[in-house]
Amino acid sequence: MELTKQLAEAVLSADPLQDHRAVEMARHGLLDAAAAALAAKEDEGIQKLMALVEQEGGEAQIPVIGQGKKVSRQSAAMLNGYLIHALDYDDVHSDVRGHPSAVIIPALLSQLSDGKGFGDRFLAAYITGVEVMARLGESIGKAHYERGWHNTGTLGAIAAVCAIGYLKKVSQEELMKAIGFAGAQSAGMRKQFGSDMKPLQAGLAARTAVWSMDLACSGFGGSESILDGTLGFFSLYGDEERAESRLLDGYGTTWRIVSPGLWFKVYPFCSAAHHAADAILYLMKEHPFSPEQVKQVDVLFPPGGDAALIERTPSTGEEGRFSVEYVIALAAFGQTLALDAFTKKPISSQIRTWMKRVKRGYDQTIEPHPYAVPKGRFTIVKITLSDGTTISKRVDIPRGAPGHALSKEDIMQKLNSVTDASYAKQILQAVEDGNDSSYKQMLA
User: Fold this and answer.
1) Where is the MmgE/PrpD C-terminal domain (predicted)?
2) pLDDT tens-digit profile of 5-19?
3) Which of 108, 151, 372, 408 is surrounded by the fewest CB atoms within 10 Å?
4) Residue 439 to residues 110, 113, 435, 444: CA-CA distances in angstroms?
5) For residue 402, cis peptide bond before it (omega within 30 degrees of 0)
6) Summary count for the chain: helices (H), strands (E)
7) Dihedral, 309, 315, 318, 320 alpha carbons, nearest 10
8) Domains of the chain
9) pTM of whole model > 0.90?
């Protein structure tokens, strides 16, 4: 099958704007991404990256969210991608097993410098990017992530270049080559979770997409079949046979931004720990206990359900974003699961010692909930108290996930929590206006 050619054809011929639910979800995604980026505007990593970019120079074209500065198009894609993903407070998608908006939105925003009027096509391009990234995630297979690849980086560049191609109405041949350039640069490793490099991988994917489309539109030479054959992207990174049956099936009939849908986060840490967070908070409310009363906490996952939670003994709050032990310990000590608990600050010795009471387990015999998010996933938190009493809670669909989704008002509350009310209202107006000048205003 000519997957690259067929993907380019499908992307350029579809019309996402016909689905009003997809358009509404895209607007929600823009608001949530703005909240995630503004929450990170004082992040140490962005200051270091800004300094490096300013040293290098270049034409000041696109603003960096919350920084009051403009940089080159490619640098803006990288910096805005880093910002959106910096605190792991941005959306996820279960088909992607990663973070689509942190790559796609910055890549699209970088295209607003050329004076063209995109209007609602910007939203359609964003829907397209999510669609392609979700289909790539489903096609690549779970082994890709489990081997250590970071799907946000490896799949994001190709998805974002498809979004740019749709936005700019490039030719099919240009998009095929751009997909090839992006595929050749696809990268990202889970080994970097819990460090500055993890969110930078989202930014680098966004920058790669911008650069890849620039190369293609300049006439630079490259393969137009990067996804195909024994040396192609899917054979190299995943499963070509699986991709042939899934990548393009029913493209354009429904949109993945709606179903299964984006997951807007309640907590600023890895979504794989959100089930456990909901469970421990429920148990503390319904069966109040002190941390001293806890003898052991057993956290039960399906096999592989905690693959993203690579930190079992984190030293800092930043590492703690990927530790179910830390999340449960924080809650048990009555601390809020808020942004200030997941910084580079060292974790207290008291919390680190208590975390040893948390044990992980796995059970493949438990029947998954039919609407679990992600599919087939659950977390059971069982607490054994010092007097022998046991209490437990199972969560299949955490707050914020499709099926237990945040409303527009919830997302605005998230946005209001990280910026002043007047600026939040300005961002909302920009998203609802849906024109190029408004989207630029989001970046101011």
Assistant:
1) 267-425
2) 999 999 999 999 999
3) 408
4) 11, 11, 6, 9
5) no
6) 19, 6
7) 40
8) 3-265+407-442 (1.10.4100.10), 271-395 (3.30.1330.120)
9) yes
